[in-house]
Amino acid sequence: MTSFADLAPLERAQEQKAWYWYDWANSAYFTTVLSVMFAPYMIEVAGKAAGCPDNLDDAASCGNTVGLLGLDLAAGSLPFYLTSFATILSAFVLPVVGAFVDRSSHKKRHMAFFAWAGAAFASLLFFMKDDDWQIGAVAVVFSSVLAGCSLVSYSAILVDISTEDERDRVSSRGWAFGYLGGGVLLAINLGMFLGHDAIGLSSGFAVRLSLLSAAVWWAGFTIIPFLRLRDRDPVDPVAVTGSVLDRSFGQLWRTLKELRGYPMTLTFLAAYLFFNDGIQTVIYAASTYGSKTLGFGDSVLIGTILLIQFVAFGGALLFGRIAARVGSYKPILYGVFVWIVIVVLAFFLPEGNVPLFMLIAVAIGLVLGGTQALSRSFFSLLIPRGREGEYFALYNACERGTSWLGTFVFAVMFQLTDSYRPALLALIAFFAVGAFFLLRLDPERGIREAGNTVPEPLRTATGTQG
């Protein structure tokens, strides 16, 4: 009798390595563009159009307005209105994309198409200069929405290239690779910006080159997964018909109704919406808190941004190793409690204490990469097979649709107290609610209800057999 070696694990490993490269590719856009450079530069450009002073800080607080779709918007608030509009637009688009992805045999092509289209729009940010902010407004809205569309396909591919037992490891390595890639390009761009005089560039041109580099990086490295991943036939596709409105909000509504049959999936989604909103708000508020409350200069804040980025690389790998022993549920739960401790420590952090601020940054980096990576892999286990695009579209659409809540609470608390310390402390509520839902979650039940196999580490950790 002739026996043949099972080559499936080797083939999956090759595809997993290719899949990691899209985290590396798109993280440059999210880090260099959306997290660091776009908002302050757009405020400067829009400020010139509104007649604000040339100084960036004054432009940010300038009350002069620019006109957009018949609305008069403060120049200092324009980038935040634009990103909010992009999240609302995503709520229409992503459910359609998710349903389409589930019915397609070409997930990698859709991922690459959305990535290259998004990178093309992102490259238009290079032409935002002087007082021409309009091209930047169009570029950031469409690139942001297209990035979200590409991630729906990308997340759905995770299920195709990994078994349930491999899911945490693969997701963690992808996130780690993404943090490393985003951090490398950000370090290069911040070095170019800080040393622009030495290399004969204006500060504005250095920023524009940085924005362009993120688009080129995103498009270029997407070629690797596009060439090395393979297409697969859809699993039990569900036909989607009707108008665009019905296929977007109608599909989203049908998915939400269906979730009643998967209570553990719904419970985790509720938990994720709260604790992830807390995470995003802490990251968003960190530089403001560091500069306005703790009195740190730009050099400390830039160093902190890079420190978090590279520590998050190790944090994602560390959480992946922990999940390999106990499953992903407990690390996510304990990670949320660590976030509460981080917020409390930051609240009591004395002004001007750089070493303690850096220690908290290290803690943020460690838990940031881990909680995000394992949330993605754990959610994939709670999705019925063949519905990955639809459910990950819901995951992303709901996340984007509620991402304003944490920043709103932070802003209201600051307005009421005139201090960023209680504003930061108020974010504990998001982590507490997230932990509340996580504690009500039975992970094994949720995985089985979705028709998936409970990973061996989770069965071992809970003493469950089979």
TrEMBL record:
It is a multi-pass membrane protein. The keyword Transcription does not apply. SUPFAM superfamilies: MFS general substrate transporter. Pfam families: ATG22. The keyword Transmembrane helix applies. It is found in: Endomembrane system. Keywords: Membrane, Transmembrane, Transmembrane helix, Transport. The chain crosses the membrane at residues 21-43, 78-101, 113-129, 135-162, 174-193, 205-227, 266-287, 299-320, 332-350, 356-379, 391-414, 420-439. This is MFS transporter. It comes from Nocardioides plantarum.
